[in-house]
Structures are given as C-alpha cells and as structure tokens.
Amino acid sequence: MPDMEGDDREKNDDYYLELSPDPIRFESVSCLTNVFFDDSKQQVFAVRSGGVTGVLVKGPDQNLNFRMEDKGPVISIKFSPDMNILAIQRTNTSVEFVNYSSVSGLDYAEYSQSCKGKNATILGFVWTHGTEILVVTDHGVELFQVNPEKRNVRALKCLSLGVNWFVFCPKSYLVLLSSGTIGNQIQALHVTPGNLHKLTKFEIEHGVTKPGKLAVSERDVALAVLYGTPCIILLRHQPGANRSIGTAFVYVYTVHKMMTIKKSHMLKLDVGGRFAINVVDNLIIVHHQASKTSMIFDIMLSGVSDGTVMHHTNITTAKPIKPFNLKVPGATLSDQMYQPCQLYSPNWVVFQPNIIIDVKLGCLWYIELRLETLVKLITDKVLLVEFLMHRSNAKQILIQVLQSFMNQLPVSLMEMPIIFDKLNSVYRNYLESEIQNQMGTPLQNNVKNVTILTDNFKYKLLLDQSDMYSHILSKFPEDTIEPKMIIWVLLEYIRSLAEHGIPVQHYLHELVITTLVHRKAYYQLHQLLQYHVVADSKPLACLLLSLENLYPAAHQLALDMLKRLGNAHEEIIEVLLSKGHILAALRYVRSAGMADQISARKFLEAAKATDDATLFHSVFKFFEQRNLRLHNTTAFTKGEHCQPYVQYFKYLFQGTDNECNSDTNSNVTTISS
C-alpha cells in the first residue's frame, strides 16, 4: 500500500496543498463523547461522560488523560498557557477553575467566577497573558486574573457593549466583537497584560438581511497575522445574491499599530457557496466546498488598485487538496490498511491559522504547501520569483528555479533584468538594515527605505552576490548556452547591483573577465576595463596579469588598474620586478615617494638575476645615494642583509668604479627623473 501511495504522489503532482502526514488522532464525537478544540493552544479535548470516564487532551506537545467530576454538560474547556489551570464552562453565567499539575493531576477543589453583568450570557472565554482570562458575554467583555495558589479570581477590566459573537487571535491578542442589531458594527480590542485597548470601530457594508439574521456571521470572519501585520479576513457574498449562485469575495482589513483598521485588500473568488479560510506561510487559503477546491492568495504580490483597496486574483487555478489515505487497523494487529478520507467533508471544522479537524474521523491536520508543485503551475517567471521570495524556507527552491531560467536562455532573457532588480531591491534593504544596526541610527538619506524594510523586507528571501555566484552565475551549462548570453546575464546582474547602490564583489568581475577570455572576446574585455564597467580591484588586476599569455595587453591593463587603485604600490613593484623592469620599478618607487621605505635587497637581487652589470651598477648606486641621504654613509645597515650584493659589486667593479662614474650618474639620473 505505501508503494501505491508513492505512485499516487507521482501521478497527481498538481496538488499544491496537502494535509500533514501524521494527523493528531483523537476520540471522535459520539453520544458519550464531546469534543472541544482550543485554538490558542491547539489542543483537542475529548470529554467522555462529562469527564467521569476520562478527559483526553491531544495537542502538538501534549497527550494527557485525567478524570473529573460530572457537574453537568461541558460547554467549553481550556488549559491556561502554563498548563497549571483548567477552565471549564458548564453554564451560561460562570466559568469554573481547577488547578492541574503534571505530577499529581487534577485538583478536585474547584473555584469559579460568574460574569459581572446582570442577565448576561457567556459567549465564550479565552486565556490571554499568563493567568489572565477574558470572558466575553452578550453584554460586553470582562478581564480577570486567576490566582491558583489562593484559588480566587480578581476582576481587572470590563467593557460594556452589546455583543453578538466574538473572534480571538492568540498571535496578536486581538479580539473582534460583533455588535448592533444586524451585527455589522465591529469593535476590535487589543488585550495587553491587565488591560483592554479599544481600536477604531468600523462598520461592514451589508445587503438586505432577513429579520433576525445577522449581516455578518462569525463563520465568515478570521483573524490572522500576515507578514507581521494583524489582519481581519472577512468573507462577503455579493449583496442580494443567493449564496449558491452568486459570487463571493474576501476583504482583508489591516490593523496598523493596534490603533486604526483599514480595508486594504480584496480577493476575487468568482464563485459562490460555502467557504472556509486558512492561513499558511502568509498565504490566504480559501476552501470552496461545492467544487472541492482551494484557492491561494498572496497580499504581498501586486494587484490592481482602485485607489484605496488592492484587488487580487488567485495565484493559479483552483485545485483540490491532495488526496489523503488514513492509516487504520486491519483484520489482525500486524495489518494496517489505508482508508481514503473524504476531503472538504461537511464534518470538517477549520481553525486558524492552518488547522482542519474532522470531528467524525477524529483527526486534526495541519494544511501544508507543496511549493514544488506551485513552481510548475505558476507560468509567469517574474511572479513565480516574487511568490517564492515571500515564502519561508524556499531559498533552495528559488535557487533551483533561477537555475532552470538560466538553462532556458534565451527564452527567459527578457525577464532576467526584472528578476535581478527584485532580488537586489531586497538585498539593498537588507544591507541598509545591517548598516543601521551597526550604527545604531537610521541612514539619514534613506530613512524612508529603512521604514519600508521594517514593514516588508524581513519577510522576503535574501539572495546575495555570494548565493548568486555560487549557485547560479558560475553554473552555466557551457555546452548548451552561447557564451555571449552568459556575458549578457553577468553584465545585467552587475548593472542591477550598481543601480541599487550595492558594491560589486570582485569574484563577479573575475567571472566576467574569465568568460570573455574563454570566448576570446578581448576587444569587449578591453572596452569593459577602459570604461570602468568592471570595478578596479587588486584580485582583478592579479587575474589580468595571469591572463597575459592569452592576451598580452592584459599586463598593461593590470598595471593601469593597480595605479588607479592608489594603494597597490607593493603589487605594482612586484609586477615590474617579476618582468625584469627594474629601472621602471625604481622610477615608480621614486614617483610614489617610497624610496626611503623599500627593501634594497629585493631590487639588488632582481638586478643581479638579470646578469646585466650596468643595470646592477645603476641599482647599487641608487641605494648607496639613498644610504648617504638617510645615514650619511654609503654603507648598507646590517639589518638590510645586503653584504652579498656589496661583495658582488666589488667583484664586478673593483678598480673600475671611478671609470664608470659618468655612466652611473646618467643612469641614476634616469631612475630619479
């Protein structure tokens, strides 16, 4: 059976969503068992017979089993963030608390808290910070602090407001309250430790509603955090249209600095019916029950703006979730069978951000992206790169995509400049952020850019020059791509770096030069160097020197480059000496004002190696004059280790020194000039 599953995966590789392979299994709903889910801690509670025969708690990190007294049907049950207090709601007016320890289990001494509002009905409760609990009633919200040691509860804050329903986001601590007779007035609260903060109230546009029916229902609202910004995701049907035949759309309201709420995005669904919403890796997933398909939207991608709201369409065609086979016991203990699960089942309950629960099967899944499939489905190359840049842990896939683009040259030629600019825009902002962190203050001339960085760029993938060089630009398949295409891509990438004010690393320039030399494009190389398209650097000059055998002019180009650098005196001297241009090296030393610092031994050794007595005489006399100027004597100091050369000079010119003086002076004059 596992083999069949593998075959299935290969055949159906156009599914871009899948359920997590190992679902959290729990006891399914029955006449004896009630199931509850706490979306804050992502825990499933299976309460058997009111808790008398056991409460099973399953979560990402928990697998608990305990018993409690049956004091009536359980309406809601949740653990505190530290797992030390269990809150149980059995009536519409109060919440009971029981201390819990992982060692001793449940403490049977209960203590409770009734809601403060008279005739108020509890709609639900959520644990917030530490041992603080927020109780939402139809008359408002009440924030309490639970003290497990003293087994008492203290009121902290309350807010009176007619409430129809509420939604809570455990990631942003945002609470959304629906109020008004038709429920279209929305009050948002930000819960901080010990306090409640009201955000701007807003109204949701609505069509004609039936008497007694709310214009906005709880199931049409989801709270999420997208790219670090708290968002309200609201499903709306075309005003006045029948749900099954009309079209629907999703509004995304963004919460700015926990103060103002703005309608920012609209997602076009182009179908009607029942929907459910998940959020995976900052993508909004909209499940459509009738067609049994799901759509994905990325609000970071550019859409069509109407001036205030950005309109987005599905990134690719709607597709079903990948079929899932559930492992079930076989006829014998050793046997295991696979049972296909009904996808988009009426028994599915969707929770934020990425949870799907099938209460009948007793399974909790996390919905996951299959990026490899999306790569095949998104045909627009620029859109694909942008999309992957927004995904976490997609660096390797992005590199593979860029490699495939390179293999498709010249087909992908037109898109490459735009792609490079998008990559380097993020790279530039990353570098600015690094500088800002090191300096401790924003860059004065780029304050605006740094602000953008804080909001957006930390959610985008960074591909720096090193990544591009190592994985893409140095990996061209030479046999299939024309060298001129490779040159074009390299220069285009360098152009993009330069336009974004990013210093180009020498290894990229080296790659350009070696590629040009490889295809014998010497004239083009000369032009690039002459017009400084390729930036001067010592490693580059050394590379040019090494290419002299292939391109003789490279030697002079390298020397010119070193001279322009202004800090490469040693390298220039070494190059001239290695070529036997000793007098030229001495002239350069003199012009650079380095005559007093250079090593006499190095020059004398080079002069001796030429077997040119006249040249050796000139160099020797040059350093004697230097010694006279510095030490008032022509003798070399002991530390210069020049004694062998003094002996060699005597050997060559003993007794003839005076005769050669006129020639020597003329040579030294030549050196000094």
Automatic annotation (TrEMBL):
<dbReference type="GO" id="GO:0035658">
    <property type="term" value="C:Mon1-Ccz1 complex"/>
</dbReference>
<dbReference type="GO" id="GO:0031902">
    <property type="term" value="C:late endosome membrane"/>
</dbReference>
<dbReference type="InterPro" id="IPR036322">
    <property type="entry name" value="WD40_repeat_dom_sf"/>
</dbReference>
<dbReference type="InterPro" id="IPR040371">
    <property type="entry name" value="RMC1"/>
</dbReference>
<dbReference type="Pfam" id="PF07035">
    <property type="entry name" value="RMC1_C"/>
</dbReference>
<dbReference type="GO" id="GO:0010506">
    <property type="term" value="P:regulation of autophagy"/>
</dbReference>
<dbReference type="InterPro" id="IPR049040">
    <property type="entry name" value="RMC1_N"/>
</dbReference>
<protein>
    <recommendedName>
        <fullName>Mic1 domain-containing protein</fullName>
    </recommendedName>
</protein>
<feature type="domain" description="Mic1">
    <location>
        <begin position="391"/>
        <end position="638"/>
    </location>
</feature>
<dbReference type="Pfam" id="PF21029">
    <property type="entry name" value="RMC1_N"/>
</dbReference>
<dbReference type="InterPro" id="IPR009755">
    <property type="entry name" value="RMC1_C"/>
</dbReference>
<dbReference type="GO" id="GO:0005765">
    <property type="term" value="C:lysosomal membrane"/>
</dbReference>
<feature type="domain" description="Regulator of MON1-CCZ1 complex N-terminal">
    <location>
        <begin position="35"/>
        <end position="152"/>
    </location>
</feature>
